[in-house]
Design brief:
Helix content: over 70%
Order of helices and strands: HHHHHHHH
Radius of gyration: 17 Å
């Protein structure tokens, strides 16, 4: 069961990252919002399956990774479910729109950045638990740990107010930044799928 959940979570994770990259290129933001909800669910499944493989001496790192994965998923679901329901379907007043609409780079945007920072913490800790048995495992471990470098920036940048007055992820620079992240994270899902697939049933 652990292997199957790991394979499914990793495969869906890779597919959703790919879809997110494509939807961003075509400026279909509502579609990308929905995809991010599925991405967060698949990420928790992937991390949970990797945590299930932890040896005793790495158990604390695995539990930390799983806890951070859950926090990330909650934040992301709040942000994007709000976009796909309240923002999409209701006529919001100016103040409510400023707070709830992701495109205004207010509260929802800041929670989104925080969420992906917490995701980076999760990948860092779960990367510490991966036991290297082949080249796939080694590459997966490096990418997971390396992804942790996103945490400080995601935590601090919104506090500086640097996004105020910009167009964030909808600007050309924002789209390029997200596409680069997709290029980095897509192999994580693929390698994790191969990692679980190569495990003995």
């Amino acid at each position: 069961m652990n292997r199957k959940i790991g394979m499914a979570g990793s495969l869906i994770n890779a597919l959703t990252v790919f879809l997110f990259a494509v939807l961003m290129l075509f400026d279909f933001t509502d579609g990308s919002f929905f995809v991010c909800i599925i991405l967060s669910i698949s990420f928790v499944c992937m991390v949970a399956a990797l945590e299930a493989e932890c040896t005793d001496e790495r158990r604390a790192a695995g539990k930390a990774a799983l806890a951070f994965a859950a926090i990330y998923a909650v934040l992301i679901m709040i942000v994007y479910y709000t976009q796909c329901t309240t923002v999409l379907n209701e006529k919001l007043g100016e103040e409510a729109d400023r707070i709830l609409n992701y495109r205004n780079l207010g509260l929802m945007f800041n929670l989104d950045i925080l969420g992906y920072g917490i995701m980076a913490l999760s990948t860092f800790f779960i990367g510490l638990t991966v036991q290297v048995k082949n080249k796939i495992d080694k590459a997966l471990k490096i990418l997971l740990i390396g992804h942790g470098v996103f945490f400080p920036g995601c935590l601090i940048m919104p506090m500086t107010g640097m996004f105020l007055g910009s167009h964030g992820s909808t600007s050309k620079g924002g789209v390029i930044a997200l596409e680069i992240w997709c290029l980095y994270f897509l192999p994580v899902g693929i390698l994790a799928f191969l990692h679980f697939k190569n495990r003995e049933k």
